[in-house]
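Task: fold both queries, return tokens.
Query 1:
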Amino acid sequence: MAVETLEVHASTQFESGPAERAALLDTNRRRWLNGSREPYALSLAGGTLYIITDPEDIAAVHKNSRTLVFDGYIRDLMAVMDVEPVTVEKLYHVPNKYEMSPAELKVNPGAKHFINLTHDRYISQLSPGPRLDVLQSRFLQDLVTELHIDRLRGALLTSPSSSSPSSSSSGTQRTAKNISLLRMCRNVIVTCNSNLLFGDRLLQTDPDFLEKFSAFDDDNWVMLYKMPRFYAKKVREARQKLGVDFEQYLKLPVSERHGAAELITGMADGMRGLGIKESEIATQLFLVHWS
């Protein structure tokens, strides 16, 4: 699979928001590669970033667990997100198969470390079949609900709502709303993902959750590219506040956390079994939500 390398230099055209930068990059990609979806690489800040856009290539990458290893990236991401080193070591600890109990062997017959075991759970949950069908159905139901006009209010509005006479013979008033399309798409997707993975209780723990998530999502690149901590103050504060929200969610009785995906409950229980503290479990669940 050939990969074309492109040199990217800083310029004012990248000073807009993240959505605009992504759109500009994709426009340039199509121009550089004549509309092809071949993989390409960006030489950026002394490193190389490989980008794939073809669904078939994406599937091939996910299936290739022999020559493509993500452990280095995952460890680096955890360090950036201030995961404690002792937690990382526990997540990557490979158990001795001969010292595992029958119950542990039933859950983890291959004696894999927790990260690999979680990867297997992802595959099981998201592979085509009944389990994925249930998730898709729930997501689509939430999507329809969140796109109802009555949900488009508050921070989504860019100007006050207005009413105009309907063209119908009844003469009823029809409401028009001016909204931010970017904010609407982001809020709807985050809400649907939250409800799918954690049920509706996660968002109920904090009315400002969506705003905090947006603040982190806009500027997380500052952390990922390891900018000085003083430069990343706002995004780090958003990340810490989101961690508190996930920790508050974990403190709820199990009976109140109904609707959580099996993947999430299995991860939380598995990490408790490794002796990982609740605040660190909250960080791991936040990373699953964000990713």
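Query 1 returned. Query 2:
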Amino acid sequence: MAAASYDHDELSQPSRERFSTELGPLPSSTPDLNPIADSQSDDLVPHRGVASAHFKTKSEPPTRLPRNKYGGLKRWFHILKTFSQIATTLFTGTMFGIMIYVNVKYYTTRNHFIEERTPWPKNGTKVWPSIMLLAAAGITLCTSTIILFNYCCNFRKLQQSWKATMLLYGVHIASWVAISVVYRVEKGLHGNNDDLWGWSCSTQANNIQKLFDGVVDFRSLCSAQSGSWYVSIVEFVVRIIITVVLYVINRKQGGEQDLIDGVDGAAVTLLQHTL
């Protein structure tokens, strides 16, 4: 019920007593209509001197900081993702070119006989490690190029969930670590030197180099394949460094909120982007 306003001096003594009983003691002076009350009180309190149901609350809780506070970090997140794909494209492109050269040289000279022998091991040549590296480099080169093209044409591709990004990078790193290790282990395994890399760098190949001058340059093949292996190491080391930096940036910009995308979203993106 709304309360009426009365002049303090016009109220008779009985009226003052009656209103004092019903509404509490009236102030001896003009009511303080200042809406600001004691800020230390946690409860709802009426304005002093106003006999009504108007209440005030303690100061409103601070609003959440806008996410654009982290706009700079997000921009670096996207820049690093793009740089990662560019680096992968360059590295895998280099490996792909080298392995094409090596395999073409082998297949065009494997039936070239001089003094009843070919430039390659007499008991057969193990080519699958070189084909494995060639295929891995080719597939990664194609997918990286497609992803870069999508980044250029559709910026939203850069905004995939943090968890999906980490999963994709983890698969990429694990794959290339395995490929690099297998390729290196197969070089001259058990001292046979029957693979392309092992044979090209072997003393047996060096002994017949003069016989096959103008046909095969084993020194250049050895250097090319060694360089290809080193590039594969650099490729996944750079990806590891970028992954760590992306993880740190994501944590700084409150990446916990992005985890609501869940494993399902990451798996879907993984199917869309292979290595």
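Both queries returned. Flag for query 2: Strands lie at 45-46, 55-56.
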